[in-house]
Amino acid sequence: MLRMEKWMDIKMLKQEGHSIRKICELTGYSRNTVRKILREKAPQAFNQPERKSLLDQFKPYIEQRYQQCALSCVRLLDEIRSMGYGGRIDTLRRFVRTLKPATRARQKMTVRFETPPGKQSQADWSYCGRFADSKGKLISIYCFVIILSYSRAMYVEFTTSMKLPILIGCHLRAFGYFNGWTETILYDNMKQVRIDGETLNPLFVDFASHYGITIKTHQPRRPRTKGKVERMVDYIKDNFLNGRTFSDLGDLNTQSLHWLQNVAHARVHATTGAQPAVLLEQERAYLTPLGQVAPYQLTLKDSRVVDASGFVRYRGSRYSVPPAHVGGAVLVEEGATALRIRSGDLIIAEHKLAQAPGACVSQPEHIEQLWQLSLKRAPQPQPNWQVTFEQQVETPSLALYEEVAQ
Questions:
Q1: Which partner for 154 in 129, 147, 329, 363 could form a disulfide, CB atoms 3.0-4.6 Å apart?
Q2: Host domain of residue 94
């Protein structure tokens, strides 16, 4: 097969008036080759001759097994050798390498569909990193994101925990931000929502049922099912977090709300072709409105004993109680944002939840009462033995000692 340059050289020599014999002398090709090229209007494409391989008869089986289980070449080699393959593993690896792009493409295939207004939203957590607090302790920061599938409007909140009370609190504040909620919410398989492959978290089901929300979770290892919120997590980290500085968690959340209003919801969305803020105003008419049901109250309860310093320990932090209850058993109730401490039916203390484990949350009046009690001297305990002094002790005369001395 001649290269393009050689093919054109023969054509040019003929145009210059050289005979076939002269062309053969100048190029070194045979008469038949020169005549063939002169008859062609364009150079012929080279056809790679088909080569037979020892692997050919096993290729359908290999492709099927790889698509089903993505077996390694070592595993595949063991299987096809038992079927009669006598070639090398390198030949197998070259063939399997051609299967990987197609397999990956099939794994990523996702049917994109747009949902009507008010029907669905998607929610997710994302880990954002660890940062040192004022005492140098590293604190993990998480980002909660929920996006309305129709309008692409979203609510963002940063937290230091992904526990269920925090998750429910984020939902409640998101409902307030949107002025309602959708019929269904799509999640991944987080433990706060789904305990295992068959069981939803009953506490979260209680929350969703209170608002009439249908819980949906995507199939394991297919996060693209909730691709709208997945893409927004990347967008938040790049467009909002990257390169910015925040003084504390409150400042982080304040700036995020400002960014939502002025950047994220003001831009023209690439898929919808409209601003999320504009579509949100349309979608609010289809959301279940606030006020239709009473606010949900989540309470987690656990018993504790008040220590000698007038505190109870709960989830790694300390909370003060009136010192009169030192040594007594109390009931701790954890809500979405507050923690109540009861003695019987009486609420003896109420605190905001600690922002991070290891915190000491107290009320000034509890510390003052403890200080006043510590200043009072406790009565000395009486000994549990006695001296009666009933027996008369004889006192000798001094003259007796004088006589002994002489």
A1: 147
A2: 56-107
